Amino acid sequence: MGCAGSTPKTDDNSKKLKKPKPWKHNQAITTTRLKQMRDEFWDTAPHYGGQKEIWDALRAAAEAELSLAQTIVDSAGIIVSNSDMTICYDEREFRLQSSRV
Q1: Residue 75 within any structural domain of the chain
Q2: How far is CA 63 from CA 29, 39, 72, in A?
Q3: Domain span holding position 65
Q4: 12 belongs to a structural domain
């Protein structure tokens, strides 16, 4: 129950995803090296905290088209702080931060 003047709480998860700005490395790298860097990030990210399932959902969302990515994020209960998914939180509000690789 709420007060007569209270407003319903909005869902924090509802922030719409946007395509991130292009990422640039300080040195020229090959497509193979970029893929290797991405794989290293996703392989090690769960070791810094958070549930592996949430990291897996974030990876799937990062590699998907925007409309599917939005569905994945919403379904996993991921709280998106930045619309480019560089800062997200899981349902227990553990910070999940990407390195934009």
Answers
A1: yes
A2: 20, 12, 11
A3: 29-97
A4: no
The confidence score (pLDDT) of residue 97 equals 66
Taking the C-alpha atoms of residue 93 and residue 67, their distance in angstroms, rounded to an integer, is: 24
pTM of the model: 0.72
For the chain, how many structural domains are there in total? 1
pLDDT at 2 over 50: no
pLDDT tens digits, 17-30: 888 788 788 889 99
- The band of 94, judged by pLDDT with boundaries at 50, 70 and 90, is low
| CATH, residue 88 | 1.20.225.20
Q: Give buried/exposed letters for 50-61 (b at 16+ CB in 10 A, else e).
A: beeebbebbbeb
Residue 66 forms part of a structural domain? yes
- Tens of pLDDT, residue by residue over 31-42, are 999 999 999 999
The answer to whether residue 9 is domain-embedded is no
